[in-house]
Amino acid sequence: QVHLEESGGGLVQPGESLRLACVASRSIVGVVMAWYRQAPGKQRELVAEISRGGITNYLGSVEGRFTIDRDNAYRKVSLEMNNLKPEDTAVYYCNARFQPADAWGQGIQVTVSE
């Protein structure tokens, strides 16, 4: 069973930055990697994804502020989050689209507040 370990969350003020990291317990070569988030009372939503070839896709509200990247050698995917806003507050989840089933991290809290 694949394990995804997330790190880097925390409490920041609006306008500040955080970098989330996710390390997989097995190779992520050829695997689409993604970050999702879920705010209280809301459905989980896709924040960013990166294909095996490095093509990225972002949620409209984070476009230009967040950057996803991957390092297959270290089995790692990261999410750089800049100019954070209170509405970015959520639990963030790492996702790996393995076959036959996705793997998910345990989730990490990001809170943006004065």
Q: What's a quick, concise take on this entry?
A:
The strands form two sheets. Strands 2, 4, 5, 6, 9, 10 and 11 form a seven-stranded mixed β-sheet that branches. A hairpin with a 5-residue loop joins β5 and β6 (56-58). This protein has 114 residues and is mostly beta strands.
Write a concise keyword list for the protein shown above.
mainly beta, globular, single chain
Describe this entry's structure for a reader.
The chain has no helices and eleven strands. Strands 2, 4, 5, 6, 9, 10 and 11 form a seven-stranded mixed sheet that branches. Strands 1-3-8-7 form a four-stranded antiparallel sheet, with no helix packed on it. It has strands at 4-7, 10-12, 18-24, 33-38, 45-50, 56-58, 66-71, 76-81, 90-96, 103-104, 108-112. The model has no long low-confidence stretch (mean pLDDT 97). The chain starts with a strand and ends with a strand. The relative contact order is 0.32. Helix content is 0%, strand content 48%. It is mainly beta and 114 residues long.
Tell me roughly what share of residues is in helical segments: under 10%
List the secondary-structure elements in sequence, H or E.
EEEEEEEEEEE
Q: How far from one another are the termini?
A: 40 Å
State the helix count: 0
How confident is the prediction overall: mean pLDDT? 97
Determine the strand fraction and express it as a percent band.
over 45%
Task: Count every beta strand, where a strand is a DSSP E run of 2 or more residues.
Answer: 11
Main sheet: strands, sense, barrel: 7 strands, mixed
Rg (C-alpha, Å): 13 Å
Give the overall shape, derived from the CA principal axes: globular
Judged by helices, strands and strand pairing, the structural class is mainly beta
Which regions contain 5 or more consecutive residues with pLDDT less than 50? Answer: none
